[in-house]
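URGENT: need a sanity check before tomorrow's submission.

F., can you look over the Glutathione S-transferase 3, mitochondrial record below? I want to be sure the sequence and structure line up before it goes out.
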Amino acid sequence: MEILELLPSSFGYVIFTYFYSWIMLSYLGVKVGAARKKYDVKYPTMYSDKEQVFNCIQRAHQNTLEVYPQWLVFQTIAALVYPTSAAVLGAIWVTSRFSYAWGYYTGDPAKRMKGAYGYIGYFGVIILSIAVALQLLGVL
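Structure tokens as predicted:
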């Protein structure tokens, strides 16, 4: 059986969500690279002793990378059974990472909370993943 026969057609939305997340990660990475030049922070130094704004730009990217593997797993599990819902929740989470980063880029770490709405998407795919697990176990 071919993969296109196994997956629902709406799984295509999920694939576009993955692509959107790649764009987001690339954007955040480019911003760190530009900040390295602007604030003269050489590799392999992760953080600056002098430039708080650089550290905020770096943390926005680093924090996203820290949570990204878990999001991918839950996004995929949820999408296997609930592709449209997972795609919407994934798009919310990815969009929130832009808001989170833009808030952080101000140099005021408290403003990163502008992306807090992303927990709707993040916890949403976790809840859907739990539902998938319970369905597989015959509990639901």
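My own read: The chain has a mean pLDDT of 97. Residues 52-81 form the longest helix (30 residues). If you see anything odd, call me.
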